[in-house]
Request: fold
Amino acid sequence: MSLLIAPMTPRDWLGVREIYSEGIATGNATFETELPDWPKWDASHRQDCRLVAREEETEDSASPRLLGWAALSPVSSRSVYVGVAEVSVYVATEARGQGIGKALLQKLIEESESAGIWMLQAGIFPENSASISLHKSLGFREVGVRRRIGRLNGIWRDVLLLERRSSVAGL
Reply:
């Protein structure tokens, strides 16, 4: 399979939403329990640094499948934090374990640095070992554990906080 990583457009929303739904269903990807509509999702993410991964189109392929997505959310509206963003990376169930998450996160890091982002952070449930390994493989480090920070379906959950400082942006 040949992979194409491209900027996300509103036309990608249905595929992005489906993959997000799969992540919600795992119970280990997000505190969200309901899917947002496009305006809500769009408003909560940066307009730049939004990517999708899909199979590259070939002559004999139907429309290329969306395999994953990655995007950044601002962590604060305060100007001092303009270069800090939170990472979201989601991969379709049938595409996990094929390097798609790594390709998306690697490209997202490049795009974030081009956009002047000097610090990326990720909040990951400790049970999501694949996501933790992915982030660490690309230079994220553990900052700490936010114990019992929120409830998911009535159960208190911890979140491991990871961050990656750019060696390019914000010097």
In short: The longest helix spans residues 100-114.
